[in-house]
Specification:
This protein has 71 residues and is mostly helical. 79% of the residues lie in helices and 0% in strands. The chain has a domain at 27-54. It starts with a helix and ends in a 14-residue tail after the last helix.
Length: 71
């Protein structure tokens, strides 16, 4: 009976070691993904600012329905 308990403990220790490795790998991956998300978020903000600046420099449509002066 002693060997059965020891075998079960050995199996549990092996499973726990595997779970620890898996958890560490997942944690590393989540950390990398967070860095990528932060980078992408900054890029989207930069693009949104550039687009807003570009839209501000372009001639806008007026509310008047008047034709342009060359008509």
């Amino acid at each position: 009976m002693n060997t059965q308990v020891e075998d079960r403990i050995d199996d549990l220790e092996a499973k726990m070691a595997f779970q620890d490795d898996t958890i560490q790998a997942l944690n590393d991956m989540v950390g990398k993904q967070q860095l990528e998300l932060d980078t992408l978020h900054r890029a989207v903000e930069l693009l949104a600012r550039r687009q807003a600046d570009l839209a501000a420099t372009m001639p806008g449509e007026t509310d008047d329905d008047e034709p342009p002066p060359h008509y």
